[in-house]
Amino acid sequence: MTIRHRVAPLAVALLALAGCAPRLVTPVTDPAHALARARPRAWAAWRDDGDLPSLRAALVQSLTWLETQPPDRPLVFGPRTVTAGHQRAALAGLLAELAGAPGPETLTARILERFEVLRSVGGPDGQVLVTGYYEPVVEAADRPGDGHAVPIFGVPDDLIEVALETFDPRWRGERLAGRREGRRLVPYWTRAEIDAGRLDGRGLELAWARDPVDVFFLEIQGSGTLRLPDGREVRIGHAASNGRPYRAIGRLLIDEREMVPEAVSMQSLRAWLAAHPAERARVLHYNESYVFFRRLDGPPLGNLGVPVTPGRSIATDARLFPSGALAFIRTEQPVRAPDGRIDWRPLARFVLNQDTGGAIRGPGRVDLFWGRGEQAELAAGLMKQPGQLYFLVPR
Predict the structure, then answer these.
(1) Could you give the C-alpha distances from 44 to 38, 40, 90, 335, 350, in angstroms and in order?
(2) pLDDT, greater one: 359 or 369
(3) The whole model's pTM is what?
(4) Rounded Cα–Cα distance for residues 236 and 213 (Å)
């Protein structure tokens, strides 16, 4: 893929859906103001609860990206700016430290020797909203028939994408998409227009799925695996979008008094759509945004063009936070108990900033990639927890 312009990582979208995302009194749009210096007590009890192999893997991917950057490229960490070369040297040094398999306390101590701690200014209360996204598995086929009638489209050749920052640096990270109509650039077709057949007959179909709801949530994730009838699996990822604004279907159902905010999750939305088949198209079409995919040769990629690591890669606002950087998050995660209940347990770990998404805006949002599987789906569907986000800037 890359999922740089993914419509929205799932739980971030669900958050917007539920209308419970924190709102800043004065929106932070300048990266110099997104991070502030942290007090020592903020990191006094840091203990990484993840495994070292995943941290090594995520560090390698950030280093892979940094090696493609000019050494003098500036990376803004709030009140500080470092070069890509400086950042690369610091992360490479940390990777070498991991060869000795340090324990959690030693790991924190060695990181603090090399890095200064800055905290995200977050929302009005200084907290960030921590959500999750994952890699879904969708039943699909190479050709239509036998119940497979929902197209999964590749990128149309008439789709035009514009990076607005090439016209004015104030629009850093913003993009526009549309199509030509004479000499004019006009908005691309909406979800409803595409579902009505605007792209049919152009050979754009990568595959056909059985369930339009599966495809809808696949778009929200930005990547996933197609499981074909013969057992083969094909990974696909975000290639482009129609440029239409993302509109949360959960918000629509709340406004229509069909759901209450605290009950909104991927699981509850799926259940509502299954129970109201006559309303399904209307509700899905409320979100005019549409994602086009491409086939992948390997795992999902983040906006840096490198694989994202389950439990270690985060997505943040690319306009505010430095790409590839080391960070630390504290929040809680859901775990299914043996009796089926959901328990919430603390989560605290070092992560790498390797992705972004169209619904992630401001310093009060962070999305954690969970990979694939039952636990990943559970966390991605339910997480919308308060937490803290810190960035580590090389000394």
Answers:
(1) 11, 6, 22, 26, 14
(2) 369
(3) 0.83
(4) 17
